[in-house]
Amino acid sequence: MTFHSEPDEATVAELMTRYGIARIPTAEFHYKSYRYARFGDALAQARHDAEQPNAPAAMRWRKAWPFI
To answer: Domain map of the chain by residue range?
Structure first.
């Protein structure tokens, strides 16, 4: 069976049951146009950007906070 678009939820549920497929909800962290699976990676990039000379003043202020 080949799908050219995503099947409806009932079909997905039936196929998941038939083939033993599990759906796992995941968190995704967005920073600018990027998506990160780990918060630490998003934070590292944001901190890196904040250290750049052309970073907005609001970003430079935030880097002073240890938990941000």
So the answer is: 9-62
